Structure formats: C-alpha cells, structure tokens
Amino acid sequence: KAGVTQTPRYLIKTRGQQVTLSCSPISGHRSVSWYQQTPGQGLQFLFEYFSETQRNKGNFPGRFSGRQFSNSRSEMNVSTLELGDSALYLCASRTASGNYNEQFFGPGTRLTVL
Amino acid sequence: DAKTTQPNSMESNEEEPVHLPCNHSTISGTDYIHWYRQLPSQGPEYVIHGLTSNVNNRMASLAIAEDRKSSTLILHRATLRDAAVYYCILRRSGGYQKVTFGIGTKLQVIP
Hints:
The structure holds two protein chains of two kinds. Chain A is mainly β. Chain A has strands spanning 5-7, 10-13, 19-24, 31-38, 42-50, 53-57, 64-68, 74-78, 87-94, 104-105, 109-113. In chain A, strands 2, 4, 5, 6, 9, 10 and 11 form a seven-stranded mixed β-sheet that branches. In chain A, strands 1-3-8-7 form a four-stranded antiparallel β-sheet, with no helix packed on it. In chain A, β4 and β5 form a beta hairpin. The chains are: A mainly beta, B mainly beta. The interface between A and B is medium-sized, with 26 and 25 residues.
C-alpha cells in the first residue's frame, strides 16, 4: 500500500505570494491532518479534515486554510506569505473509523519564504 | 487540551537501554498516551500507545505510572537507527482534537 505523498517536496516563494500544498492520503484513509514544523516551535497542529469538512483547527491565522476533496486528497493554502512561514509542512492520514488510530505521516513539503 | 513535558535531549550508548520520560500531570481519564518518533529527514512515525497498562511491541515498551501522570518509553537496546526526535502526545480515543507534538526529545545514540 502506498504511503502518504506530498507535493511538491520543496518550494521557494517570496513574501506576499501565496502557496498551495497537496497531500494524498493512504488509500482508505479519510482523515487528513496538517502540521507545521519549525526548529523553535516543533510540530504544531494546523487543521484536520474528514469527509471534506474541517473538524478542528489549530491556533494559526486565517491566512492558513485548507480543503479536502471527495477522494480524501487535501490541499492547504497559505496566502500573503511571511518570512516566518518558512517551515516543513507535514500531512498525516488515518482511517478515523471508530477509536483513534495511528497517524501516518508524509515526507513533508519544505517551504522557504524569501 | 492536556499537555506533555519532555526533556529537550538525551544521550545513550549504543546497545544500552534508553528510558525516555514524559510528564502529563493534567491527563484525563480518557486520554491515551502515544509516542511517535521522527528520523532525520522523514515525517514522524508511530511507535506505541497505551491507556493504563504497560505495553510492549516490536519497537519499544511503554511504562505508565500508576497515577498516569507520567510515562516512559523504553528502547531495550539502542541502535544508531534509533537516533531520532521522540514525541509523547495525549489523545482521546475518538473525535477530533488539536494535538500538538511540540519539540519532543532528541535522542543521540553514541557508538
């Protein structure tokens, strides 16, 4: 079974631009979560989607948004990029059926904002 | 949301046991204790989880204090491949939660 895939793997943008990152979950997984990882803050929760609906959201500004499609693939968008948005963005999928189960993480997208 | 506290870093000699501590004094009765680890240049991967009783799997053991306010991840015999950042998190069994992994414990394994 293929793992979680994220595209692109690396991205360089300039301040003020916007960016869209993509995540394809493991087949059969209906929940996708997004995280931001920086050296100082560690791994911070952005949001979780299940059945095309955002189920929970972390403490990030409205510039960070996401969506999920009917095939469970998810995208996250960051508008008006700031230097501080430079980070590794990770997505994770899980089946989300019944009790909590483990998350499977993708390799991440490394975003650099210049 | 209940929080966890871990040391920023630890060292271990290769082939010796490693005990990684985690404090979660505000844990609720429905919170499971989960451990993940992140190898260099990879996303985190699941290691183990438990509720009240100690747990063992092929990767590690999880020892949970009787009052559940702390837990310890035990790697029985550290190898160089175990050098990673280890995260301890709390999650309820169902529903959707804001779970932040934080900084974790960076484990260095010395040959």
